[in-house]
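Entry:
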Amino acid sequence: MARVLVIDDEKDIAEIVQLVLQLGGHQVRQCNEPDAAVDTALEYRPDLILLDVVMPGIDGYDVFHELKAQAELKDIPVAFLTSNNKSVDLMVGLHVMKAEDYITKPFGKQELLDRVNTLLTKHGKA
């Protein structure tokens, strides 16, 4: 059972993601406060992080940098989960930020589960 951390200020979205992944056999924790993301990740030690980009205050890109600056977290794969669906956003997320994946909202339940499972398998966590 893989451990997934969902960082999203929209509690409804985070709860849907949590339910889908739990039904898929994963252990999931939510963090709805971007300022608490690093502390939550350090405590939880996830195998994968799903990170929203558009959040109030600190955005997902800043959270990504903070996560990767931590020695204990730098090797944990991060996938952006966001409503930003323009090609430039995808290029920034994957090629500039070096995220493992870029999943756009709205997403299908099976698509989300398949992409999470693919990432976990790729990193030997499935």
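The longest helix spans residues 109-122.
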